[in-house]
User: What shape does this take?
Amino acid sequence: MKKLFYIGIVALIFYEFLKVYLIMPMPGSQEMNSLDVAYFFHSYRWSIRIFLAILIVSGLPAAFRIGRKWIPALFVLILCFVIYTFNFYMLAEKMFKQPEQLAFKPKSENVLTDSSIVMGLKFNGEAKAYPIRYMSYHHQLPDIIGGKEVIVTYCNVCRTG
Assistant: This one.
């Protein structure tokens, strides 16, 4: 029964990490075709969490029956830290803030190279370029182009704008 506790804890830590890793721009995550797995993890998040919580609770008495009670307590603390970090601290709403002020410069004054990848938008005779490397950090950018309010969006998971 003690094994159920540790399997549940480790699996839940791994699940919470993967759930975020598969959709965030982290090293290696963007080279994978992970959108379907990330969607599955999100769709069944409560079923997965409840199943793993049942494993943890069923093995809890056996895990704390041993002489070194600090070991399972440490695992519980690590799990709490991971759950907090990946579900509250690393939320997209907290990480990807919209800029408060935009600064567009003419091409002659711009620091972008000719090989920089941008999303272009043209409306009513006005054209703007939004660098992908900046859009990846903000995901949404309210702007005014050609006298019309727009929201420029970019998803670095599916690489679309």
User: Anything to note?
Assistant: The helical segments are 2-21, 35-43, 45-64, 70-89, 92-95, 132-138. Residues 2-21 form the longest helix (20 residues). The radius of gyration is 22 Å. The mean pLDDT is 85.
